Amino acid sequence: xxxxxxxxxxxxxxxxxxxxxxxxxxxxxxxxxxxxxxxxxxxxxxxxxxxxxxxxxxxxxxxxxxxxxxxxxxxxxxxxxxxxxxxxxxxxxxxxxxxxxxxxxxxxxxxxxxxxxxxxxxxxxxxxxxxxxxxxxxxxxxxxxxxxxxxxxxxxxxxxxxxxxxxxxxxxxxxxxxxxxxxxxxxxxxxxxxxxxxxxxxxxxxxxxxxxxxxxxxxxxxxxxxxxxxxxxxxxxxxxxxxxxxxxxxxxxxxxxxxxxxxxxxxxx
Length: 269
Hints:
Elements: E1 7-11, H1 17-26, E2 32-36, H2 48-64, E3 69-72, H3 75-80, H4 82-88, E4 93-95, H5 97-107, E5 112-117, H6 119-124, H7 126-134, E6 139-144, H8 148-153, H9 160-176, E7 180-184, H10 192-199, E8 204-206, H11 208-222, E9 235-239, H12 243-253, E10 261-263
Parallel strand pairs: 1-2, 1-3, 2-9, 3-4, 5-6, 5-7, 7-8, 9-10
């Protein structure tokens, strides 16, 4: 396999750029192709059948870009479609759920772990499944937080409205005495500071985006496909709609300027 081939990364929208940011930081030589399904976001309220259909279309697009690995940078797609697409591909695939669950299991001292995410991610129970596979005596407290995504996409990262919604969603976690909280949606790390303020220092926030980039690096090394060319990485960005909004959001998240994002008809793949 060509070690300089890009890594394909996809998400239901723009939240997956938090994963891209971590890959850029931890794997600065790796080329990337990012696809954000901005026309069909959110995935969190859609059925498994629909999410799997969308994921397959995106994977077909990424295969045409001759990617050497695929990162499913979407918790909902990781929960509902990862197993199926992994079986259908010859390149390695990694999702965001398992790396986050592993770190939460390692960091907890009380064995009481909180999970926040989209309705589909929470309903799937995927994080709880991974956690209990690691430690059967872990107690999982989960909550869907659907309003976090639009708040992040509107740029309300430090705002009284966001603080109010955080309190509304997360107050019950304090009653359960969790000591680790998984940010189970790629948008949520962008309001990490506000969540941390509310939860307090005794609760460790787990960012699956960071853990996924770390796991990706390990996987590429094990398969001997790390890019060691020493050349500056190249990044390509594609969306299914809304280039201006995507570019504006990317400018707030990524450490580098997004020169261009291209709209593609993902339904044709």
